[in-house]
Write a structure and sequence with these properties.
Elements (H helix, E strand, L loop, with lengths): L2 H19 L2 H82 L2 E10 L8 E4 L12 E3 L4 E8 L4 E5 L7 E5 L5 E6 L10 E6 L10 E4 L11 E10 L4 E7 L8 E8 L1
Antiparallel strand pairs: 1-2, 1-12, 2-5, 3-4, 3-12, 4-5, 6-7, 6-9, 7-8, 8-11, 9-10, 10-11
């Protein structure tokens, strides 16, 4: 062992002995001075520990807030879906109430029928309903909704029937214009996949004073469609070389129909 190390050890041992031999009051003063000297270090350590604890607490609170936000978002989506369902149910109940009122007040015996299918290729021409001959349905019976004319029955099976829609160009309906002496024939136009076919009234007089919004009603000629059924309203009128022609807006949204009534007979 080097002499320097021995000297250091000796000095340290001497200092320890001196400290032990010091009076108690002196040792307490020295301890106080030592604590005073290291106090800044202790305070810094305590501050860092406190800050770390605060960060950990803040992270925990953020995690809790995130979970709470996810829970509230889920509940909000559920409420949104429930509100949408309630609105749809309210709309459906309102529609069914209107249909029920129409059936009760109608002068005809009406048979309710649900539309079973519609082919895309003949969307504006025909639809199939879930009633047939066993329910009393026969060809050439008029088909309506509470809003107006839909078409007429053509082919009939035991449990199903085909309805030719008023938008088909082959269907002809004699009509009159409410508030005028004008009469004509309504038919559809050739259907296209890109637009809704027009309904047109032909064989009107060239001088017919038709205004937009006038009601178009069945005239009752031909025995298929009873008089007074709403077909639509006048959209515009033009005088051609030999006749007047009007375009009408159908009373029934033929793209959205789901349920119809078949007119069985007069009450």
């Amino acid at each position: 062992m080097k002499s320097t190390s021995i000297a250091v050890i000796g000095i340290f041992a001497l200092l320890v002995m001196l400290v032990l031999l010091l009076p108690q009051a002196t040792k307490q003063q020295m301890q106080g001075a030592l604590f005073q000297w290291i106090a800044p270090v202790l305070r810094t350590g305590a501050s860092v520990g406190h800050e770390l604890g605060g960060v950990r607490g803040g992270l925990k609170r953020l995690d809790e807030l995130e979970r709470e936000n996810e829970r509230l978002y889920s509940e909000n989506e559920q409420l949104r879906a429930a509100n949408s369902l309630l609105r749809n149910l309210e709309t459906e109940v309102s529609r069914l109430n209107r249909a029920l009122g129409f059936r009760e007040q109608s002068p005809f015996k009406l048979l309710p029928a649900r539309i079973l299918s519609r082919e895309s290729a003949t969307w504006w021409n025909t639809c199939t309903i879930g009633c047939g001959s066993k329910d009393g349905i026969a060809p050439d019976m008029a088909v309506v909704t509470e809003n107006g004319l839909v078409g007429k029955v053509t082919t009939v099976g035991k449990d199903v029937a085909v309805v030719l829609l008023v938008s088909d160009e082959s269907l002809r309906v004699s009509v009159s214009i409410e508030g005028t002496q004008e009469q004509g024939i309504v038919s559809g136009t050739r259907a296209s996949s890109t637009y809704t076919p027009d309904l047109r009234i032909r064989f009107l007089s060239k001088t017919a004073n038709l205004q937009p919004g006038m009601k178009v009603l069945t005239a009752g000629a031909g025995g298929v469609f009873p008089s007074g059924l709403v077909v639509g309203t006048v959209k515009d009128f033009s005088a051609k070389e030999l006749e007047g022609i009007a375009t009408i807006v159908p009373a029934v949204d033929l793209a959205e129909i789901r349920d119809v009534f078949v007119i069985i007979r007069q009450k």
